[in-house]
Design goal:
By secondary structure, the chain is α/β, with parallel strands linked by helices. The chain has 2 domains: 6-88 and 169-250, 3-Layer(aba) Sandwich (Rossmann fold); 94-164, no CATH class. It has helices spanning 49-56, 79-86, 104-115, 120-133, 149-160, 179-196, 207-213, 233-239, 243-249, and strands spanning 9-20, 23-34, 38-43, 64-69, 72-73, 89-92, 167-171, 199-203, 216-221, 226-230. A 6-stranded mixed sheet has the order 6-7-8-3-9-10. A 4-stranded antiparallel sheet has the order 2-1-4-5, covered by helices on one side. The longest helix has 18 residues, at 179-196. The two termini are 32 Å apart.
Length: 262
């Protein structure tokens, strides 16, 4: 696909500026997430990766600019239209955000209870199916504290998929996982993209994940407070002439850099 083929655009971020009061986070962000992309939001510590994700999923309004889905500007849409648009999103938060007092099936069933008219038995059936898709068949009645961190992430992913979203958003999905669990999660993300055709947006600084799953990206710079590169991460690693991008993507110790992005 051509990088600037807007007919294939699933999300377009245009002239976006993010701030907390007078404190500027990022400005002049312009990029396109194509349908079927696994799009990486990357950059150094404190550059605003997670803040950008929150702007894209409707949790934080930008200071200016647009986030367009199917050419509809989310932040200029009426509240009821925004809610309708959100139903097409699935979000996996950094720590999974599972309710500890609920079983995995109950956690996955929450969006179904809120947004559908399915009866309890049908919700249970759909929840079991989503858990099976992420490799957790048979774990429906387990509680989050009874399973590993990697399994919690997968359960969080099952909940994000509950309403069959068009777009999945992941905030540091590999955070806190050992390398084996992290690679298994990357493999699962690739499988879901291939089998379901879902567009996926991922905030991460983990090089192994960036190069394993990403086919498009934006690089945010905390110093200039704007994007300084976009495109296939592997191409940027090999061909970028910007020293910040080159050094970030050619680090000798993946994961060595701690990320505390806003």
């Amino acid at each position: 696909m051509e990088k600037n083929n807007l007919t294939d655009a699933h999300i377009r971020v245009s002239d976006l500026t993010m701030a907390y009061g007078d404190f500027l986070i990022q400005s002049d962000l312009d990029f396109t997430v194509r349908r079927g992309d696994i799009f990486i939001i990357m950059g150094g510590s404190g550059c605003g990766k997670s803040t950008l994700l929150r702007c894209m999923v409707g949790l934080k309004a930008p200071a200016k600019g647009s986030v367009l889905f199917h050419d509809t500007d989310f932040w200029k849409a009426a509240p009821e239209e925004q809610e309708r648009m959100k139903r097409h999103f699935g979000i996996l938060f950094q720590r999974g955000a599972l309710w500890s007092s609920m079983t995995l099936a109950e956690n996955v069933g929450l969006p179904l209870e809120e947004y559908t008219d399915l009866d309890p038995s049908a919700i249970r059936e759909v929840a079991a199916l989503k858990l099976a898709l992420v490799g957790l068949a048979g774990f429906e009645d387990y509680y989050p504290n009874e399973i590993s961190g990697g399994m919690q992430k997968r359960a969080g992913l099952a909940r994000a998929m509950a309403l069959d979203p068009e777009i999945l958003f992941f905030d540091e999905p590999s955070a806190g996982l050992d390398p084996v669990s992290s690679r298994l999660l990357d493999d699962l993300i690739l499988e879901l993209r291939e089998s379901l055709g879902t567009t996926i947006v991922v905030v991460t600084h983990e090089l192994a994940s960036i190069f394993t799953i990403g086919n498009n990206s934006v690089f945010l710079d905390p110093d200039t407070k704007t994007m300084i590169a976009s495109g296939d991460p592997k191409v940027l690693r090999d061909q970028s002439g910007d020293p910040k991008v080159h050094n970030f993507l050619n680090r000798s110790a993946p994961g060595a850099e701690e990320d505390t992005a806003a």
